[in-house]
């Protein structure tokens, strides 16, 4: 008789806005993942969340870390509350899967990555756009080399976030809580996906600004040019000031074909006249409701992380891969401030 695989034990920290797709994903994965407990500081909101999704409420974060059946901690707090949580998990020998960004600043993100490396625990970062069927299909074609050499890149993130109900919430769009604006909070998903397909950016020239549509400390509009390490060139535009919001799109122009990812779809146009479409039509959270997207991408990433930890390998999205997107964002913002080309 085959030995039944033990479920992967997970403790969850944080249960705010970002937690909904994770909760739905964890319930869909309950045969594979055992949610041992959820903890957040606000007890009433914790109990409400646990009742809604059928999870046990943890007595404290320390109780989660003391549970020998917890293999990993899923961290869903805002980025300003991460460093102590991750350090304690690493010290307790628990692996960590964490919402993006790693932290507000690259220096703090580097400390988190170093803490996990030093403790020998795996650190995964949630970048669910990599786990869309269309993204995975394109990654396979890029890896095979069948598209030829990459020549040019075009990324557009034309999103909308309202002042009322979004930026009016305390801390939203501030350096103290979020660490930045549209790049680190919204476009970071598309930038990470881009880097996973293109390889590193060498240098950028950018404009970063806050439009009159928002009252906020950080930027809501960034446009820039990119020089890639492999010789390709690219341009990007990312905003939360494009009412009513549209799907992000990434076009990669190769020697033999152009590939466009729009939301959850991949369109390939070959120079020889062929064209093909892969994927599924879906919302991406580009409009006023930031959570208006399916949870199956989160489900795929949580499952892949659990499989990686169980097998003793690194997951697809790690703290180290996330540092690359943090450094690109830093360069774009610095270029916008200083009005010059900046090396990444």
Automatic annotation (TrEMBL):
Transmembrane residue ranges: none
GO molecular function: nucleotide binding
Protein name: Gfo/Idh/MocA family oxidoreductase
Cited InterPro entries: Gfo/Idh/MocA-like_OxRdtase_N, Gfo/Idh/MocA_Oxidoreductase, GFO_IDH_MocA-like_dom, NAD(P)-bd_dom_sf
Pfam families tied to this protein: GFO_IDH_MocA, GFO_IDH_MocA_C3
Residue stretches making up the Gfo/Idh/MocA-like oxidoreductase N-terminal domain: 9-125
Alphabetized Gene3D superfamilies for the sequence: Dihydrodipicolinate Reductase, domain 2, NAD(P)-binding Rossmann-like Domain
Domain GFO/IDH/MocA-like oxidoreductase: from-to ranges: 141-257
Organism: Devosia ureilytica
Domain of life: Bacteria
PANTHER family, A to Z: D-GLUCOSIDE 3-DEHYDROGENASE, UDP-N-ACETYL-2-AMINO-2-DEOXY-D-GLUCURONATE OXIDASE
């Amino acid at each position: 008789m085959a030995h039944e695989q033990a479920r992967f034990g997970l403790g969850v920290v944080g249960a705010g806005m970002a937690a909904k797709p994770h909760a739905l994903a964890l319930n869909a994965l309950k045969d594979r993942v055992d949610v041992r407990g959820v903890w957040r500081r606000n007890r009433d909101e914790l109990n409400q969340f646990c009742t809604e999704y059928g999870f046990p409420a943890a007595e404290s974060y320390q109780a989660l870390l003391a549970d020998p059946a917890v293999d990993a901690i899923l961290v869903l707090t805002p980025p300003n509350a991460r460093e102590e949580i991750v350090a304690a998990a690493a010290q307790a020998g628990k692996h960590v899967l964490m919402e993006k960004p790693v932290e507000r600043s690259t220096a703090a993100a580097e400390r988190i990555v170093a803490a996990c490396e030093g403790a020998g625990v795996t650190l995964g970062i949630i970048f669910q756009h990599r786990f869309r069927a269309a993204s995975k299909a394109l990654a396979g074609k890029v890896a095979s080399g069948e598209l030829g050499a990459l020549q040019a890149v075009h990324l557009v993130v034309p999103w909308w976030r309202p002042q009322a109900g979004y930026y009016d919430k305390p801390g939203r769009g501030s350096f103290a809580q979020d660490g930045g604006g549209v790049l680190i909070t919204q476009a970071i998903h598309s930038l990470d996906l881009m880097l996973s397909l293109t390889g590193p950016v060498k240098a950028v020239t950018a404009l970063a600004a806050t439009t009159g549509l928002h009252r906020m400390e950080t930027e809501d509009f960034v446009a820039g040019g990119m020089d890639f390490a492999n010789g390709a060139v690219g341009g990007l535009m990312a905003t939360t000031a494009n009412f009513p919001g549209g799907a992000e799109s990434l076009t990669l122009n190769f020697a033999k074909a152009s590939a466009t990812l729009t939301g959850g779809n991949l369109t390939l146009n070959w120079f020889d006249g062929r064209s093909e479409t892969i994927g599924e039509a879906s919302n991406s959270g580009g409009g006023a409701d930031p959570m208006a997207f399916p949870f199956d991408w989160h489900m795929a990433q949580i499952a892949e992380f659990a499989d990686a930890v169980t097998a003793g390998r690194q997951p697809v999205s790690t703290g180290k891969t996330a540092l690359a997107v943090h450094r690109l964002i830093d360069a774009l913002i610095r270029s916008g401030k200083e009005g010059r080309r900046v090396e990444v």
